[in-house]
Each structure stands twice: as structure tokens, then as C-alpha cells.
């Protein structure tokens, strides 16, 4: 599997995002949180992913955009670890929820741990 983040994997649907916030389940590894819900969408991809960084913790758009880029890159590099456990299609929202300014290496490590935790939380 390639390590890309193509356009059809990006979560853009307002309905699905609302569904994530109302019915989604959550897995966390400080300061990251992954909210997920099983979905049925037309595209031939195993999952759709969106990222979010709170304006509450990072007032400047430059800082929020930096952490969103880091989250997308961590997802892209560890996507195979995440999709290995999937037996149906899922929609995800990936959050950075702290004012702590972690380095890229720390975020990458936390992302791997979070994806492992997600894999263990799935029904077999």
C-alpha cells in the first residue's frame, strides 16, 4: 500500500462530521484524540480522515496549520498500521488537544501508539 493521502480519503462531508460528533467513539493518547464511526461511502478507500487543531490552544493560524500538517503527515506515514485492522469502512477525525508544543518526533510516536490502541479497541 502506498503512503499517500489522496483527495478521496479526505473527510469533507458536513453530515459525516456531524455524525462523528454525535455518535462517534473515541480513543485518546495525550495530546491526540481519534474519533471514529463506521461509514458507508461510495469511494473505494478503506477510510476517510480529517484533522483538527483547536483555536482555543493555538490562537495564530500559522501554529494551527503547522500542527495540522504534522498530523496529516503522521497519518500518511502510519496509514498501513491503521488500515491493517479495518474490516469495514470508517470515518475518522484526528485532533490535537493541548497547548503543549510537542516536536514532530513526539507526535509521530504518540500517533503510532494511538493507532495501536485503536486497533485493539475494534471488534474482531
Automatic annotation (TrEMBL):
Q: InterPro entries in the record, alphabetically?
A: Ribosomal_Su5_D2-typ_SF, Ribsml_uS5_D2-typ_fold_subgr, RNase_P
Q: Where are its TM segments located?
A: none
The record ties this protein, via Pfam families, to:
Ribonuclease_P (PF00825)
Which EC numbers does the record give? 3.1.26.5
Top-level EC class, please? hydrolase
Q: What SUPFAM superfamilies does the database record attribute to this sequence?
A: Ribosomal protein S5 domain 2-like (SSF54211)
Q: Which reaction does it catalyse?
A: Endonucleolytic cleavage of RNA, removing 5'-extranucleotides from tRNA precursor
Keywords attached to this entry:
Endonuclease, Hydrolase, Nuclease, RNA-binding, tRNA processing
**Subunit:** Consists of a catalytic RNA component (M1 or rnpB) and a protein subunit.
As for family, the record states: Belongs to the RnpA family.
PANTHER family referenced in this protein's UniProt entry, alphabetically: RIBONUCLEASE P PROTEIN COMPONENT
Its annotated function is as follows: RNaseP catalyzes the removal of the 5'-leader sequence from pre-tRNA to produce the mature 5'-terminus. It can also cleave other RNA substrates such as 4.5S RNA. The protein component plays an auxiliary but essential role in vivo by binding to the 5'-leader sequence and broadening the substrate specificity of the ribozyme.
Q: What is this protein called?
A: Ribonuclease P protein component
> What organism does the record attribute this protein to?
Flavobacterium cheonhonense
